[in-house]
Amino acid sequence: MNQRIKTKKRLQKQWPFYIMIIPGMIYLLINNYGPMAGIFIAFKKIDYGLGIFKSPWVGLENFEYLFKTDAAFTMTRNTILYNVAFIVLGTVLGIAVGIMLSELRSKAKTKFFQTVILLPYLLSWVICAYIGYAFLSKESGLLNSLLTNLGFQAVDWYNDPGKWPVILIVVNIWKGIGYTSIIYMSTIIGIDKSLYEAARVDGATKWQEIRLITLPLLKSTIIMLTIMNIGRIFYSDFGLFYQIPLNSGTLYPTTQTIDTYVYRALMQQNQIGMSSAAGVYQSLVGFILVLAANMIVRKLSPDDAMF
Amino acid sequence: MKLKRVTAFCMAAVLAGSLLTGCSSGNGSEASQGNGEDGNPEEIVFAFQLGKTVDLEPIEEALNEILIPKINVKVNLEGYSWSNYDTQISLMQSGGEQIDVISMCPNFSTYLTNNQLMAMDELLDEYAPETKELIGDEFLKSTSKAGSIYALPVYGVKTDVNGVHIRKDLVDELNLPVDQIKEAETFEEYLENMDLLTQMFQTIHEAHPELVLVPSSQNPSSFRVTEIPFTDTLGDDLGVLMDGDDQNIVNMYESEEFKTLTEYMYQWNQDGFILEDAMTTQEAADTYLKNGRAFGYFETGSDEATMEAKVQRTTGYEVVWKKLTKPFVTTNLVNNSAFGISTTSQHPEAAMKFLNEMYTNADVVNILDFGIEGVNWEEKNDGCIGYPDGVSADNSTYDIGMTWYFGNTFLAKTWEGDVPVNVDEAIANNNSARTSPALGFTYDSTAVSTEIAAIGNVTSQYLPGLLCGFLNPDETIPEFLDALDSAGIGEVIAEKQTQYDSWLAENK
User: Fold this and answer.
1) Spatial separation of the C-alpha atoms in residues A192 and B341, rounded to whole Å
2) Taking all residues of chain B, what is their mean pLDDT, rounded to a whole number?
3) Inter-chain CB proximity B470 and A256 less than 8 Å
4) B453 in a domain, yes or no?
5) Domain with B342 in it: what CATH number?
6) pTM for the full model?
7) ipTM above 0.85, yes or no
């Protein structure tokens, strides 16, 4: 009884917040749960004359092309390794920049740097591809004119797969760091200032403050973001892997990922069954990985597990 | 508890909402009202590709002023951008939206394979006999399967061949022997053209090392000159009929001809004739010409004067355009652009009546091509048309530049500055051109779609490099062939051969 009154009181006080959740919930339902019903398309050969529901079932045939050639290995390896690199470097650098931003004393400076770092995040990949092209073009690229002026050989960037792991990681970090650093910065700003004051009274150095106060308090944010990223480890940013290398065929050994493979495979065929098959495959693996990652976290530190 | 109920209610409301929107598709859109019997015109939807955003409503009105009194059909135009057109059509059909007439450019066989098109023989006989006779049985075979016609190919010039543009000031300055380029009838003659081009490019390169040859297409980047003459690619390059063999489908990439042509490209690249960014550039060839970077490029066309006038208008440079081969009519060339009726159409008769107008009524064709008389164009001297006063390319509300696209292209008026098409001559050329032994054969790739998907990745990895001369054919072709084999090109060719054999048996 007592419990119920408490709940009622809380509701009376907090109902505006619950209302604020509603648009988000509706969005989530329509955008993320509604389309899930379409999973069955992955197991059908779509015949437009019969309509989607009456089209024949084909079992796992739509999945075959994903594993047909040795490209399956290349694209899976690339997708996973790039994502691991993005998760590790993105987190480390994101935290570093987040801490630096939060240490800035003046508000104007914080806003200035925040905006500058966030700007690339707001650019579309096509524009980024042209910026990349301005640097890497063999004819008129900035990097090549720099190299030749310094007496080095010009590099044919778009024909040299060996250089692309570095290029793609740099581009991705450049583009994404503004966003991740802001997430970390907002957590840091929320940390109780009195902790730092107490530490300073005790004579702690800046480095000790970061290591012993900031990082431990960031732990749950880091874990949550990482688990969420692990869930998307089988996805790749199509814009990054297709636009930035300008779809150059010679670069496939290091730029082909699952998403670009699917795009190139189905560009001509208009087979929605096969493209949904790829989506189902990616999300199933992602789902299993999230469960696994969360299970490990729960074993190691139960408080930080997401569920 | 209350909270739970509130959320449950919200969720239920959302779900119900999404169900409702899901169901509404069954009713069809409002346009499907009116069935023609009670005097109201039948409404149809005509979907086509559009390169720019224009207001189609006035065009619709102008069309309907002609169509409603004449055939009692009201047409709704739906223009979609080239890049997502095919997806858009699939979505409309699977989502239950009304769509009746579909334009296909260039994916007729995909639409046929996915059963997106209705067989139209009876409709054609009943509602469009003039159109049937106009296009002719020979060309209609290209849009047929198993004896049924599924689409109408665009009626127009079918004798396009690959040709080379070279800047006229260079031809004059360096005395280039462009007149020695002949319309090759055999592969040997084609190679003589290639040798001649190599010499001319060498001369240009020595005099103007800053000028280069630029690719004519992107995705995959190619100079077009590597297309083997008189070879029928049977739709998709995977399994072709080589010149001189009308029985056996072979892997084009294994052929001596393919190797020879890629060797030319490699040589040209090594010699520095080719744009260094050829493989990755996103710019159109004429942009490079306009900016003074290119000495020339390859482009398909059928008439020298038309091609030269077009390039001069867009780039400001006078060029010489020379054909490299004689024309060769294939299924693919004929059905490259075609119009069909959707399998989901509720008004196939009205759709066919509309199609008939698009092939026989010059007013309909010209409204679709140029817009409304007096608003977008007006009659000028010598039977040409041009912008009315106060209208120009910058502010014209239609001006889509697609005279080659709609129905019977011979009915289109001639724009000022263009070279008028001599219709009789063009038709005579169509009829006298050499045809592929497989003309009329279309191929259904459903059985091998897995292999084709895998092959798509192999070709986009190797082809641009080979076609632009960045990869040494001696080293790359064997590697390329291995990759094709493991992706299953053997199965694709075998499947095509089986279908071709039964087509041959039926048609011989």
Assistant:
1) 68
2) 88
3) no
4) no
5) 3.40.190.10
6) 0.82
7) no
